[in-house]
Design a protein that fits this description.
The complex is a heterodimer of chains A (518) and B (353). In chain A, strand 11 and strand 12 form a beta hairpin. Chain A is globular and about 70 Å long. Chain A is α/β, with parallel strands linked by helices and 518 residues long. In chain A, helix 3 packs across helix 4, helix 3 runs parallel beside helix 5 and helix 13 (387-401) crosses helix 14. Chain A has helices spanning 56-63, 86-92, 109-116, 126-140, 155-168, 185-200, 212-218, 242-250, 311-318, 341-346, 356-359, 367-374, 387-401, 417-429, 447-462, 474-480, 503-510; strands spanning 18-27, 30-40, 45-49, 71-76, 79-81, 94-97, 173-177, 204-209, 221-226, 229-235, 270-280, 286-296, 299-304, 326-331, 334-335, 349-352, 380-381, 384-385, 435-439, 466-470, 483-488, 491-496. Chain A has three domains: 18-93 and 173-250, Rossmann fold; 106-170; 270-510, Rossmann fold (3-Layer(aba) Sandwich). Chain B is mainly α. Chain B has a domain at 78-280. In chain B, 76% of the residues lie in helices and 0% in strands. Chain B has helices spanning 2-8, 12-40, 45-57, 60-85, 93-111, 117-146, 150-170, 204-221, 223-233, 235-240, 245-272, 283-293, 298-322, 328-351. The radius of gyration of chain B is 21 Å and the shape is globular. Chain B starts with a helix and ends with a helix. The chains are: A alpha/beta (518), B mainly alpha (353). Chain A binds chain B through residues 27-30, 32, 67, 319, 321, 340-346, 351, 353, 358-365, 369, 372-374, 376-377, 380, 383-385, 406-407, 410, 414-416, 419, and chain B through 1-8, 221-224, 226-227, 229-230, 233-234, 236-244, 353.
């Protein structure tokens, strides 16, 4: 049919697709994986469950050839293999989509995908690649515009392209690192439907995750890691209760959020007020259309929506990071419609960015220096910066946030995604602020840290902050928000109260109002 | 993962020692390659190296020569280092030095017989610095308004500056009472930078040292220096932190240009004493190397500039003693730069797991 038709072996053969035996990986004195064994069968979706730091990513990087094991061996399709590099892995038919996506922003979708395809001759037939992309996108249910520049895509959209790229490069075993952490429920459903289709075509998928219901929804088997060791190996998730799985993952129980919360005062002033705001996105299209919203002090306003429906632009316009084309944006009494980050900071606004590495992390600077950067003006002393005050404030913020942040001298850019996120959260959520904007604050965090982050958002609310809380996790939104505004196509499709609605109602709004496809 | 890197991280002192060792190794490598080059040219590398060392460091005239060359080099290298902190590539040191010398020359030709010497020197310094700042500022404004890459614009502005110098010394500023050469008249004695203790070394070296210390203070101890690093590291993060990114970029270019312009003034009023074609002898480009060698850290930049100044002076002995062309020494400088930068590449690779 097409040149990228996958080589498929439909029937299950007796040997597993991938077998990992006694894999150990040490970095210096730290053992990231300790004698790990598990099997992945043909035509199987396999979840690797575990908390942050359980060794899931390391294990998958061993399988994908990014790291080499200290001990142990692997068999792929019945043959003993030594996977020395990702190139070897790809040649074998193992594809991986990393959590931090690795596309080239200045290239189009088709060009990025072409990079993963075997080149025939020196000429790049763009039209053919575009056609292949469109075909494959349809086949897998992963919508992607081949001509769009990757730079202009949302993270969710980029991830779809990455999955497509690995599939089109001929992967028989697809490894997805926390694939749903950036997707909306509907997109998760689409993704899972696509994965199901792949499974029926005989392909196997490994999903790294810490979300139980996802493992249950789609996976045939789960392997649970804790502290680098296998706790459960390739078990059927249906045979275990949630409680047993959480116990295996965490080894302790997570406290519930307080159910009783002080009500938002009726006369609370607005922390953020958008009136008829329209904003252009990076592609020059209108990303927000005539949006009118307000976040009152002492209130959490949740923002739901399928990724790429204006969430990023809303976050940016609310913090004065993007100018509005029309309408007015006010933080308290400060007008930031024209786009003024400095004015927003002066007005006391703080933010947890969607993509910290691109938008907040400065290579070479330490954790403490990033803390100072959050509010540089308040640390000025004469010509210089009062580093003593920065350190003192760092200590007190850390004490309040309790997010187990790394030491102030560590270079932020060298830390893992989760640890960078802890710094971002500590910087924004442990200060007294009248307005907080948080974009996907619990992304990439383990169960306990996610819970602590949610507590911090509630603490901000209790101390009188207005919180704009953007998330793609509906459960989290319903649990924390006083009201939820649903974005669709850059407009507010509706504002609902979690107590008076359900997931399906919100899902309908996310898909464009009364359509009722859900 | 985090625990791993902290466990492997050497204490600061050891890491500084390693860095010095790496640079020494790179330097040694460059000397070996250059030795092969010398052999290919039919000379004995050991004699060449010992001649270079003897004639440069064991001879008071040469030591003075090194210091004289170091003055504009240090200032020119700082002119690269400051914008580099903000992520800007200033290749225009040469042009900024030239234009600084031209501006100082203009002041001197007009005023050195009318005002007291000290006053003229002060005005020349101001004029040189201002001209350099304007020259670099043009590139800065082009970058901010029309998104012209500053590496290209500063490089091209070098040629414009040199042509302005040539025009002035062939036409309006030509010394009418001289030998007919295209040069300006000699600077009045009172308006020259004073010499130190009967050597050719002039007070410019103090200006260069003072500038190094001031720039170190600005970069490492002030909020301005910190904000420049933020802009240089991630300009989007800087914008989101409410920093005036455009103004910071421009300020870095202006300060850089002023330093180079001051370097041109110092070279003119301390060593050359007249404007002539080729008076800057590629100092701006050597200064560029010095800054990159030292990774734009002010104190290290000054040391690197001093080192390159001695290699440049040693080049003269090559010509005299080994009959190699003086330009041969540029090969050595290029090798040193490539080797040292290659050494950093190795280090980076070693760190990434």
């Amino acid at each position: 049919m097409s040149t990228i038709a996958l080589e498929i072996r439909p029937a299950r053969s007796g040997t597993p697709l991938l077998s990992v035996e006694g894999l150990t990986c040490r970095f210096g004195e730290v053992t990231a994986n300790d004698s790990v064994s598990f099997l992945v069968q043909h035509a199987e979706i396999h979840a690797v469950l575990g908390e942050n730091g359980a060794g899931k990513s390391t294990l998958m990087k061993l399988v994908y050839g990014v790291y080499r094991p200290t001990e142990g061996e692997m068999h792929f399709e019945g043959r003993k293999v030594s996977i020395d590099s990702p190139a070897v892995a790809r040649k074998l038919g193992i594809g991986m989509v990393f959590q931090d996506l690795r596309l080239i922003p200045a290239f189009t979708v088709a060009e990025n995908i072409a990079l993963g395809l075997p080149l025939r001759g020196p000429r790049l037939d763009r039209a053919a690649v575009c056609r292949q992309v469109t075909e494959a996108a349809e086949r897998y249910g992963l919508v992607a515009d081949p001509d769009a520049l990757v730079r202009t895509l949302s993270i969710g959209e980029r991830q779809r392209v990455e999955i497509l790229k690995a599939l089109m490069a001929g992967a028989k075993l697809l490894i997805l690192d926390e694939p749903t952490s950036v997707l909306a429920p509907q997109e998760v459903d689409t993704l899972f439907a696509g994965l199901d289709k792949l499974r029926s075509q005989g392909l196997s998928v490994i999903i790294i995750t810490h979300k139980l219901h996802e493992a249950r929804a789609i996976c045939d088997r789960v392997t649970v890691l804790r502290g680098g060791r296998v706790i459960l190996s390739a078990v059927d998730p249906a045979s275990l209760s949630d409680h047993e799985l959480v116990d295996a993952m965490v080894g302790r129980s997570v406290p519930a959020l307080p159910a009783e919360r002080p009500p938002t005062p009726h006369d609370a002033p607005a922390a953020l007020e958008l009136t008829g705001v329209s904003v252009k996105g990076d592609r020059g299209q209108f990303a927000l259309k005539d949006v009118t919203l307000s976040v009152h002090r002492g209130e959490i306003l949740g923002i739901a929506g399928v990724s790429g429906n204006g969430q990023r632009e809303l976050y940016e316009v609310a913090l004065g990071l993007r100018a509005s084309v029309s309408g007015s944006v006010k933080i308290g009494t400060t007008d930031v419609s024209g786009g003024s980050p400095a004015a927003a900071i002066d007005a006391g606004a703080v933010g947890v960015p969607e993509d910290p590495v691109a938008d907040a992390v400065v290579p070479g600077l330490s954790v403490a220096e990033h803390m100072a950067l959050g509010n540089l003006k308040s640390f000025r002393k004469g010509l210089g910066i009062d580093w003593k005050a920065v350190r003192a404030s760092l200590g007190s913020l850390e004490g309040r946030a309790q997010l187990r942040m790394q030491g102030g001298d560590r270079t932020l850019a060298e830390l893992s995604g989760g640890n960078i996120q802890r710094v971002m959260l500590t910087r924004a959520l442990a200060v007294q602020a009248p307005f907080v904007a948080a974009a996907y604050p619990s992304r990439g965090l383990d169960v306990a840290t996610t819970r602590r982050t949610q507590e911090l958002l509630l603490e901000q609310r209790a101390s009188g902050a207005g919180v704009l809380f953007i998330s793609e996790d509906l459960d989290e939104l319903m649990e924390l928000s006083d009201r939820i505004a649903v974005l669709h196509g850059g407009s507010v499709a509706g504002i609902v109260r979690p107590k008076e609605t359900d997931r399906y109602e919100i899902g309908r709004l996310m898909l464009g109002g009364g359509g009722g496809e859900q | 993962m985090s625990a791993i890197s902290s466990a492997l991280r050497p204490p600061r002192l050891r890491s500084a020692g390693r860095e010095a060792g790496r640079i020494a190794l790179a330097f040694g490598g460059a000397l070996v390659v250059f030795g092969a080059f010398v052999i290919a040219k039919g000379a004995n590398p050991f004699t060449v190296y010992s001649d270079m060392v003897r004639s440069t460091f064991l001879n008071s005239n040469s030591i003075a020569g090194v210091l004289v060359k170091a003055c504009p080099l240090i200032l020119g290298a700082l002119a690269v280092a400051v914008p580099a902190r903000a992520g800007l590539v200033n290749v225009g040191g040469e042009g900024q030095i030239v234009i600084g010398a031209v501006a100082a020359g203009g002041v001197a030709l007009a005023l050195d017989s009318h005002l007291p010497g000290g006053m003229v020197i002060l005005l020349m310094m101001l004029a040189g610095a201002a001209a350099g700042a304007i020259w670099a500022g043009i590139a800065g404004v082009l970058r901010l308004t029309l998104r012209v890459n500053e590496a290209i614009s500063t490089l091209l502005l070098n040629y414009v500056a040199i042509d302005i110098l040539l025009y002035l010394i062939y036409q309006p500023w030509k010394d009418m009472h001289g030998s007919g050469q295209p040069v300006t008249r000699q600077l009045a004695v009172a308006a020259r930078l004073p010499l130190i203790g009967g050597t050719q070394v002039h007070a410019g070296i103090f200006i260069a040292i003072a500038a190094t210390l001031v720039i170190w203070f600005l970069m490492e101890r002030t909020s301005w220096g910190f904000r420049l690093r933020v802009v240089g590291g991630n300009s989007e993060a800087a914008r989101r932190a409410g920093l005036p990114v455009g103004r910071l970029l421009l300020s870095a270019m202006l300060v850089g240009g002023a330093l180079a312009g001051l370097g041109g003034m110092v070279h003119y009023a301390g060593a050359e004493l007249q404007l002539r074609a080729g008076m800057t002898a590629n100092l701006g480009y050597i200064a560029f190397l010095a800054s990159w060698l030292a990774r734009h850290k002010p104190i290290q930049v000054a040391i690197a500039a001093l080192l390159l100044a001695s290699i440049a002076v040693a080049g003269d002995s090559l010509q005299i003693n080994s009959a190699l062309p003086a330009a041969t020494v540029n090969v050595l400088m290029g090798l040193v730069l490539v080797a040292v930068m290659g050494g950093w590449g190795l280090r980076k690779k070693a760190v990434t797991v």
